[in-house]
Write a structure and sequence with these properties.
- With about 160 residues, the chain is of the alpha/beta class.
- The protein has one domain: Uracil-DNA glycosylase-like domain (Uracil-DNA Glycosylase, subunit E, 3-Layer(aba) Sandwich), CATH 3.40.470.
- It is about 35% helix and about 20% strand.
- It has helices at about 25-30, 40-50, 60-70, 100-105, 115-120, 120-125, 145-160; strands at about 5, 15-20, 70-75, 75-80, 90-95, 110-115, 130-135.
- Helix 2 crosses helix 7 (about 145-160).
- The longest helix has 14 residues, at about 145-160.
- The protein is globular, with a radius of gyration of 15 Å.
- The model has no long low-confidence stretch (mean pLDDT about 95).
């Protein structure tokens, strides 16, 4: 299997909520962009929550919009072995340094796991002493949840963290 290295965190001093995925898929790694698969609903959900067309923006502008609003993006795994994009195929994964990230995000108030694979590591994020939420995955593999149902679940967590206008 191929050893893969993830993406750096998208954070800033104003980060109040950190969304953790599991590990970038093939399309995201190729593009070096979080949620780079066109069928992933992450950017569409954020667009709906904030009333801003993030999908139509250049990637760097998306990241600036995220940071400005107090959202951070990262993954639970910093590296792993995997063929393809499925979480079920992840092997020999290394967790990211969540405690180290806390030092860079002094205003961090909560952590939200994007999907079940990420949430499997909630014990590590709960150890930081912050509220931890489980969000429905934005992955195209999570077809059992409608877009509206996902949006509502994400809205509740974003509202609780003060990330809605």
């Amino acid at each position: 299997m191929t050893r893969l290295v993830g993406l750096p965190p998208v954070i800033g001093p104003e980060t109040r909520l950190l969304v953790l995925g599991s590990f970038p898929g093939v399309a995201s790694l190729r593009a070096q962009q979080y949620y780079g698969h066109p069928q992933n609903q992450f950017w569409k959900i954020l667009s709906a929550l904030w009333g801003v067309d993030l999908v139509g923006m250049a990637y760097d502008d998306r990241l600036e919009a995220v940071r400005t609003r107090g959202l951070g993006i990262w993954d639970v795994y910093g590296a792993c072995e995997r063929e393809g994009s499925l979480d079920a195929d992840i092997r020999h994964a290394e967790l990211n340094d969540f405690a180290g990230l806390m030092r860079e995000c002094p205003r961090l108030q909560a952590i939200a796991h994007n999907g079940g694979e990420s949430f499997r590591h909630a014990r590590h994020t709960q150890a930081l002493g912050l509220p931890v939420h489980k969000l429905p995955s934005t992955s195209p593999a999570n077809a059992s949840w409608s877009f509206e149902r996902k949006r509502q679940a994400w809205r509740e967590v974003f509202a609780a963290s003060g990330l809605l206008a």
